[in-house]
Please model this.
Amino acid sequence: MTGKIAMDNPIVEIDGDEMARVMWAWVKERLILPYVDLKTEYYDLHIKRRDETHDHVTIQAAESIKRWKVGVKCATITPNAERVKEYNLKKEWKSPNATIRSALDGTIFRAPIILSNVQPAVRFWKKPIVVARHAFGDIYDGVGLRFEGPAECEVMIRQHDGREVKAKFPSFKCSGVLQGIYNLDSSIESFARASFMYALENRLDLWFAAKDTISKVYDGRFKEIFSRIYREEFNEKFTEAGLNYHYYLIDDAVARAVRSEGGFVWACKNFDGDVLSDFVAAAYVGSLALMTSALFSPEGHFLSEAAHGTVQKHYYKHLKGEKTSTNPTAIIFAWTAALRRRGELDGNSALVEFACKLENAVRLTIERDRVMTADVANVSEPPVHAVVCTEDFIEAVKRNLNRLIDP
Ligand code: NAP
Ligand code: MG
Model:
């Protein structure tokens, strides 16, 4: 290779915590910097840095993605009481992913990294199933009440125009529980738009599934909005691309998904997406380290990351000086997704080509050389040649990458 690949515009680089942060540095240093004259706008979301800046750094990172359109993020700690103690934090800061997601009004798309020696639990699956989760509202922002019965309940909404909208429950014969949930048209519209755009860009069909036969008003509204946006904004583009949009009842969709060969984006309401994204990950690839995740906004802003967290347990071993067999594959694929998108937006074919070569180098290492980390070895068929530590895996990938670049 003659010289490094140049970049016109930067990628927003968001650093994180624990083992994910350790792998982040290794991947960048060994698999990207020697080949690409990497331009990034760097934000350090290490938990202490978020604490020092009153979480301002997270907001700055989100603003920067709006400016540069492409970002890549390392897993970060979402603080709970234990973490507040462990890191001596001022408070339990909000999840950075939630902050960035709401700043960009984005939807999360989770896709498996499909390898020939990791067989999906569902034998028909051949093409990716990408789960898109509407990460806003419903039970995640609901209110719950317990009551002593017998009791009566009426729900009333006071609108800005002074009108009241009311509904009455049947009488409650004894004690029980009650829940109120909501969603907003604007958020459902963004979710629908991001789902259609992502499906179109990735040349995949789109499914949206809910239960409008039972939840006529609530799920019915989701169904209406998806149909309208499809009709008004995407129908022609889908037809041109030979793609389809389907609405299914959620139970029908589950049965169809299991019988399908994959190859679609599955847009899910918040709770369905929470459950089904973990189900599809476990059934498809068996390891969270083989799942990528992308935040995609209706304006086309893009942030890629690994689906897994900071891998805390491995980090404590690493701190004790032990070698761990933590899998950097999803982190590498988060970088390649960002490099590819940057390349596509900037018309930089060398960058796109490099991203493809780096992904191929990972595939050759695992599929052909059968060199892999312990999590993949556990689910691999046929058996492995070598279970290696993280650094040796990265070295093996680098050897393959060098051969692909300078054959
Ligand atoms: P995790 O980091 O995903 O790890 C859970 C377990 O999954 C690990 O202990 C390990 O299993 C396995 N695993 C995950 N990634 C792996 C990899 N790359 N290679 C090999 N094995 C892998 O989840 P967690 O331990 O529940 O969460 C730790 C921290 O991550 C929390 O503070 C949480 O807030 C944060 N988190 C952040 C994000 C994000 O930023 N997007 C997402 C999720 C969680 P074994 O121990 O059995 O090997
Ligand atoms: Mg879940």
